[in-house]
Amino acid sequence: MTDLTTPASDAGSAQASPQSVKPAIAIALAALADWLFYGHQIGISAVAFALALALGSLAANFASLNRSRLLPAAAFVLAGLIPAIEEFNAASLILMILALGIALLLTTNPQQRDLGGRAAALCDLYLVGPFRFFRDAVGLFNLPALKGGLTVWLVPIALGGVFVFLLVSANPLLEKWIRLMSPGDAASYVSLGRILFWTVALSVIWPFVQVWWRRKVEATSALTDTAAAEPKRSSQRVEFFGVATILRSLVLFNLLFAVQTILDAVYLWDNVALPADISYASYAHRGAYPLIVTALLAAGFVLAAIRPGGPAEQSRVVRPLVYLWVAQNVLLVLSSILRLDLYVQVYLLTWWRVAAFIWMILVALGLILIVARIVLNRSNDWLIRANLIALTATLYICSLVNFAAIIADYNVSHSREATGKGVSIDMNYLLSLGPQALPAIDRAIALHGIDPTLVSRRGCLVEQQLKDTAFWRSWGFRSWRLQRAMGVQPKSSTAG
């Protein structure tokens, strides 16, 4: 058995769908993305683009589709779009992306039937697929000089541009320096942003238009027929995403990340005074989430580049650069945690900020596990299992933690009423945390002053708690502890 990277369409389908049609479809979809997203807030526009992407992919690969699976694929797409129609957020975006990938997998790769293979195919689609756009774009020119000289720089420059954009959006100092480098020329800055947007859009769209899957060919005859073509494909793939490309990428990425690492070491960890026009809160808050996205992209690149058994994995030059880059990414995640902690110290805790803390810790652990996979020479299956174990352990621990009580107690203890600084208690948010926040609510009412409205709403929470625990079937140890702490006994009931 061997892994071959093969197109979804065969020779017959290539005649039915000329290669000139696919770039036209990709450009049209990128123009639609520009009109829907660039400079606009995302909402129902995401649903419109997802439908257009599905239809564009259908048109580009119609000759090679598995027609019997069109109906379940359409059902997956519609099911994945419903949450985004209700509200566009991170969860609905993930579901929409998964639905589009599963639909594409069902209709263009019917040979892949096992769950592990399908999961690997989806990872290949989203992690490696976007990079194929740059290889295929060079291939359209059919010029050996371009392929030999520019291909190895496409990934470093393209992904480096994405990292620059994320780092600048995370760091107001870098944004200020870039503006100083082009004073009074805002149009060129906007133009650069739009070029980057189109590049990213095309790289995301292209895997759905020009579909390629990694397939396992088991038949001996198939191996014999493809033996002559395999070296050519392998050499092209190594040239595009081989040691030379990876080496240039890692050198460039390490230099880019070093700038952010040094700035964080100076201004975040060493508390050096910032320029007068940049507030410390702005520096701390803006970078928390973009840097996590940066770390996730970095992890995806390492997984795609340092494949088990690949030429880059054994390189004595590439390995130290990977370790250095992952170390810088771990530092970025730790800086993000510190940034969020500094922001919480001023603006208090919320459910989303607690979730962000946990997510950042998981990202840092995932990066460390990637290094462990490389050092221990383990497979990607080992890495997946290790991450699933870490995720399961995290969920288990979180299920035992009373986050509502922790958030409420922290917000009251660090409020302006309790410490004389910071922000005032948000009583509406405190009451929205539910009955588990009652001990902190009592402290907040004592600090805030007796307010009949607050006392009434507090009484409603007590009634809710008593109602929820009125029957033995609804008993919970956490609720029992709360009632013991509050000195409230549940209403006795033997019904049911």
Q: What secondary-structure arrangement, pairings included, does this model have?
A:
Blueprint: E1 2-7, H1 11-16, H2 21-37, H3 44-60, H4 70-86, H5 90-108, H6 115-141, H7 144-170, H8 172-181, H9 186-209, E2 212-217, H10 220-226, H11 230-241, H12 243-269, H13 280-286, H14 288-305, H15 318-347, H16 351-376, H17 380-399, H18 403-413, H19 416-419, H20 427-432, H21 438-448, H22 452-468, H23 477-486
Antiparallel strand pairs: 1-2
Describe this entry's structure for a reader:
Helix content is 75%, strand content 2%. A two-stranded antiparallel sheet has the order 1-2. The protein folds into 3 domains: 1-161 and 185-229, no CATH class; 242-401, no CATH class; 403-486, no CATH class. It is built from 23 helices and 2 strands.
What integer value in Å does the Rg equal? 27 Å
Give the uncertain stretches in residue-range form. 1-6, 8-18, 184-190, 216-238, 492-496
The portion of residues assigned to helices is over 70%
Number of domains: 3
In N-to-C order, the SSE pattern is EHHHHHHHHHEHHHHHHHHHHHHHH
Helix vs. strand class: mainly alpha
Biggest sheet, spatial arrangement of strands: 1-2
Q: Treating each run of at least 4 consecutive H or I residues as one helix, how many helices?
A: 23
- Biggest sheet character: 2 strands, antiparallel
Net shape: globular
